[in-house]
Specification:
Layout: H1 2-14, E1 26-30, H2 37-48, E2 51-54, H3 55-63, H4 67-91, E3 96-99, E4 121-127, H5 130-144, H6 158-173, E5 178-181, H7 187-201, E6 206-212, E7 215-221, H8 229-236, E8 242-248, H9 251-265, E9 269-275, H10 284-296, E10 304-309, H11 311-323, E11 329-334, H12 337-343, E12 348-353, E13 356-363, E14 368-371, H13 381-397, H14 409-415, H15 417-421, H16 427-445, H17 460-468, H18 475-493, H19 498-510, H20 521-529, E15 541-544, E16 550-553, H21 558-568
Parallel strand pairs: 1-3, 1-4, 2-3, 4-5, 7-14, 8-9, 8-10, 10-11, 11-14
Antiparallel strand pairs: 6-7, 12-13, 15-16
Helix pairs in contact: 2-7, 3-4, 5-6, 8-9, 10-11, 12-13, 12-16, 13-14, 13-18, 17-18, 17-20, 18-19, 18-21
């Protein structure tokens, strides 16, 4: 994937392929000192075959002086004016990797449609904590004897000054198209991330795999993927005769017609069924109607069910596919953020029962999942907001997941919140792909939720109770409330501190998720006792840790649960 993107970029710059005005042919790296911009920039220029422009080096050549001397002799105003002139000059040519100094983007003058906001420019901020900057610069100075050339290290309390300086510049850094957190990753991995961002910004797609022995899923992520759905489904099910397309009354009219045409062009006979929107369709009655439709019209084991919709459609269609003729083909095409990052991946299917949510179901892996972020353009605002809850959940649990030592998703969310809530690419596509990869890694380690997969239920214990108490709240809204309660339970029994609770609250607030609910606490607790996460009558809780990640606990007193619930139910 990365190699193909590099070749595509090289062809565009060389003129072998017509460059769309919407495809970035210039990369600009911004961010605080010590984030690794120079090292990453060199790596990217080599991989892409583009020119490297280090603005600090260009400034030194222009003045024939080193940076500290330029400041001392000519002042910051002269330095910034030269910096802007050289940036404009560098942006005038395609095939440029431009590394900026820490303060280069603080001026409004560079954030115009002709400069950093041009569609041919991809601006990537490398984010680093001041403590990391201090550590890196100190190590470099000690190793190379360059302390005099590191003005940030000179004088008293350098760390405090770094903290203050980064805070003053953070708003400018947050204007980047995407921010990558670099505290815990090396330059090679950061460069890989940026290559993938360039791919997404250029309209390419990413492929991920969930391997589970004989089963598993091929997951394709990219804007416009749904346009090629017919060929993708045909490749996954080469002998299938009919495609049974299930959607709901909102999604079907928007996207069902185009998908049907694509499937027919791939040689499928398409049958369609639409159910009412909402949790009410995840029922035995709705499943029974689908069985009547499929079996009454002569479904065969070689056919394929296609779930086009959000989590309700994915769960319902998956359950029916898993249980019809003991299992027929299944493709998930999620249309909500929640379904894209979570419910379409991992093979959990199910329907609700009056005793609780998702109590009837099966594990059934879809061989193909097609994730098209462009479909989110038609998603209602409340549905999009609901989906952020599962994204926040993944960010909190990341350090406890396989490969989660990077522990950067939470900061990634906070730094990229404006771009993400505005549904801007490539930030949104990158986030979706990373969430899918996290979910797939957990499922690959524990498909049947015997141990590790339990951590994906963070926020769901009380969340499901809140949701099932009348279904007035969307799934993500209820999970967000459940996460707030779980953090307060963690604070009460000592798994996390108040700073963790406050940080989680702030992130959920930033993405517009509810802080309180109107519900009957006794009903919520009653529904919680029927939750499928109970073992031998003991409720398991997923609680956040101060050091990062989560742990499973089964020793939470009832009065602590009720007190935490009281803080989120009005």
């Amino acid at each position: 994937m990365v190699r193909g993107t590099i070749e595509h970029a090289r062809q565009v710059v060389a003129g072998d392929e017509a460059a769309s005005p919407e495809i970035p042919t210039r990369l600009v790296l911004i961010g605080f000192s010590g984030a690794g911009k120079t090292t990453v920039g060199r790596d990217l220029a080599t991989r892409l075959g583009w020119d490297l422009v280090d603005l600090d080096e260009r400034i030194e050549a222009d003045f024939a002086l080193d940076i500290p001397t330029v400041f001392a002799r000519h002042g910051e105003d002269a330095f910034r004016a030269t910096e802007r002139r050289l940036l404009v000059q560098a942006l005038g040519q395609a095939g440029q990797v431009i590394v900026t100094g820490g303060g280069a983007v603080a001026s409004e003058e560079v954030w115009t449609d002709q400069l950093l906001r041009s569609p041919t420019v991809l601006v990537v901020a490398l984010d680093v904590q001041p403590e990391t900057t201090f550590s890196r610069l100190s190590a470099q100075a000690a190793a190379m004897g360059e302390r005099a050339a590191r003005p940030m290290l000179a004088g008293d309390e350098p760390l405090a000054r770094m903290i203050n300086l980064k805070a003053t510049r953070q708003a400018a850094y947050d204007r980047a198209d995407v921010t990558i957190v670099t505290d815990t990753v090396g330059p090679d991995e950061v460069a890989d991330d940026i290559i993938r961002l360039l791919a997404l910004a250029s309209g390419a797609r990413q492929e991920l795999a969930l391997a589970l022995g004989a089963s598993g899923s091929r997951i394709v992520v990219g804007a416009g993927v749904i346009a090629g759905a017919g060929a993708e489904v045909r490749a996954a099910f080469p002998t299938a005769g009919r495609a049974w397309l299930l959607s709901d009354e909102h999604v079907g009219p928007l996207h069902g017609g185009g998908l049907s045409v694509a499937l027919q062009a791939a040689g499928f006979r398409v049958e369609t069924w639409t159910v009412p929107s909402g949790e009410g369709s995840k029922s035995l009655a709705a499943a029974g109607q689908l069985y009547d439709w499929l079996l009454g019209d002569g479904v065969e084991r070689g056919d394929v069910v296609i779930a086009l919709g959000g989590g309700v459609i994915g769960d319902l269609a998956g359950f029916v596919a898993a249980t019809t003729l003991r299992g027929i083909g299944l493709v998930q095409i999620p249309t909500s953020l929640l379904a894209m990052v979570d419910s379409s991946v991992g093979g959990k299917t199910g329907i609700n029962h009056p005793a609780g949510k998702n109590l009837i179901g099966a594990f059934y892996q879809p061989p193909l999942v097609l994730v098209d972020p462009a479909l989110l353009a038609t998603l209602p605002h409340r549905e999009l907001t609901s989906g952020w809850a599962e994204v926040v959940k993944h960010a909190v649990i990341q350090p406890s997941t396989p490969g989660g030592e990077r522990a950067d998703l939470w900061t990634f969310l906070d730094r990229n919140a404006a771009a993400l809530t505005a549904r801007r690419q490539p930030a949104l596509g990158a986030l979706i792909a990373r969430n899918i990869a996290l979910k797939a890694a957990v499922v690959a380690a524990d498909e049947r939720e015997a141990s590790l997969r339990q951590i994906l239920n963070f926020g769901h214990t009380l969340g499901h109770g809140i949701e099932a108490a009348g279904y007035r709240y969307l799934h993500g809204e209820a999970v967000a409330l459940g996460m707030r309660a779980a953090a307060r339970i963690g604070l009460a029994i000592g798994t996390c501190d108040m700073a963790t609770v406050a940080r989680l609250d702030a992130t959920l607030d930033r993405f517009g998720l509810p802080a309180r609910a109107e519900a009957d606490p006794d009903q919520v607790l009653s529904l919680m006792t029927g939750d499928k996460k109970r073992t031998a009558g003991i409720q398991r809780w997923i609680l956040p840790l101060t050091a990062g990640g989560v742990e499973v606990r089964s020793d939470v007193p009832d009065h602590v649960v009720r007190a935490a619930l009281g803080e989120i139910i009005g």
